[in-house]
Automatic annotation (TrEMBL):
<keyword id="KW-0067">ATP-binding</keyword>
<dbReference type="InterPro" id="IPR011009">
    <property type="entry name" value="Kinase-like_dom_sf"/>
</dbReference>
<feature type="binding site">
    <location>
        <position position="34"/>
    </location>
    <ligand>
        <name>ATP</name>
    </ligand>
</feature>
<keyword id="KW-0418">Kinase</keyword>
<dbReference type="GO" id="GO:0005524">
    <property type="term" value="F:ATP binding"/>
</dbReference>
<keyword id="KW-0723">Serine/threonine-protein kinase</keyword>
<dbReference type="GO" id="GO:0004674">
    <property type="term" value="F:protein serine/threonine kinase activity"/>
</dbReference>
<keyword id="KW-0808">Transferase</keyword>
<feature type="domain" description="Protein kinase">
    <location>
        <begin position="5"/>
        <end position="260"/>
    </location>
</feature>
<dbReference type="InterPro" id="IPR000719">
    <property type="entry name" value="Prot_kinase_dom"/>
</dbReference>
<dbReference type="GO" id="GO:0006970">
    <property type="term" value="P:response to osmotic stress"/>
</dbReference>
<dbReference type="InterPro" id="IPR017441">
    <property type="entry name" value="Protein_kinase_ATP_BS"/>
</dbReference>
<dbReference type="Pfam" id="PF00069">
    <property type="entry name" value="Pkinase"/>
</dbReference>
<keyword id="KW-0547">Nucleotide-binding</keyword>
<protein>
    <recommendedName>
        <fullName>non-specific serine/threonine protein kinase</fullName>
        <ecNumber>2.7.11.1</ecNumber>
    </recommendedName>
</protein>
Length: 310
């Protein structure tokens, strides 16, 4: 990590990790570095997060750069999104239907690409959608800690994710299609952008997890009278919030819905996708999977060397 210098510590805090803003000493590029302690925290899930993220190169997904070791931590170096979380934008007040559509179009572009690469995210929420801070305010999906690859891993069955965003079939405790569960989470994100509140939480009792779960299972939500949402927008959400995943809209069907197609940015239109995807593929070659796994295994098997400053 000698080639980077610290700009700001703790720009993000997670259950097991901290994120630090750093600058490449030579290129001066800013990067976000996720530090995970070298202890029992590093396991198969961390390896899965890194390998899945490494395989995804798309303008609406935070770019993966490299993995490195410090004496005390495993460091994941990623693209920095200066605009922060989409969650913070929504917290400032309703963002309007056109802005919600713009962000949703990019969200679907990124998630759809993940699914084409046979990866389901499984923790899609406003906190895991970042904005790059550019004039176009491009959305970037992050945090692949719960992701699964259909090529490398078993069919999803774990009850994980954020309760207010997870699909009914996950709560049932049975095996489920991670891609269709992601569609549900995208619907929750869209509703929250349009309304300014989560669809299945009780506004008067937001901490009541049991009540939220019951509402999710019953698909119990409504649009407040004081919030103006177009009929096409409501129709799209009603076809995403379907308890039976087999009857829920697919990514392909979402991308052909009239509400989604309105004011669709030219780079997201059919035919322009390959150029858009290739924007992210002009970076320098990635570390090999073998090299990454060697670093992860060393982090697991070699104890941290005291409380050395990262």
């Amino acid at each position: 990590m000698e080639k980077y210098e610290i700009v700001e510590k703790d720009i993000g805090l997670g259950k097991f990790a901290v994120v630090t803003l750093m600058r490449h000493k030579h290129t001066k590029d800013l990067v976000a570095v996720k530090y995970i302690p070298r202890d029992t925290t590093i396991d198969e899930r961390v390896a899965r997060e890194i390998i899945n993220h490494r395989s995804l190169r798309h303008p609406n997904i935070i770019g993966f750069k490299e993995v490195a070791l410090t004496p005390t931590h495993l460091a994941i170096v990623m693209e920095y999104a200066a605009g922060g979380e989409l969650f913070n934008q929504v917290c400032k007040g309703k963002i309007g239907e056109d802005n919600a559509r713009y962000f949703f179009q990019q969200l679907i572009s990124g998630v759809s690409y993940c699914h084409e690469m046979e990866i389901c995210h499984r923790d899609l929420k406003l906190e895991n959608a970042l904005l790059d801070g550019s004039p176009t305010n491009r959305l970037k999906i992050c945090d692949f800690g719960y992701s699964k690859s259909y090529l490398l891993h078993s069919r999803p069955h774990s009850m994980i994710g954020t309760p207010a965003y997870i699909a009914p079939e996950i709560l049932s405790g049975k095996d489920y299609d991670g891609k269709l569960a992601d569609v549900w989470s995208c619907g929750v994100m869209l509703y929250t952008m349009l309304v300014g509140a989560l669809p299945f939480e009780d506004k008067e009792d937001t901490q009541n997890l049991q009540k939220t779960v019951k509402r999710v299972m019953a698909v119990q939500y409504k649009f407040p009278n004081e919030v103006c949402v177009s009929e096409e927008g409501k129709d799209l959400i009603s076809r995403i919030f379907v308890a039976n995943p087999a009857m829920r809209l697919t990514m392909k069907e979402i991308k052909s819905h009239p509400w989604f197609l309105k004011n669709l940015p030219k780079e997201l239109r059919e035919g322009a996708q390959n150029i858009y995807y290739n924007e992210q593929n002009t970076n320098s070659p990635l570390q090999s999977i073998e090299e990454i796994m060697n670093i992860i295994n060393e982090a697991i098997t070699t104890p941290a060397k005291g409380l050395v400053e990262k």
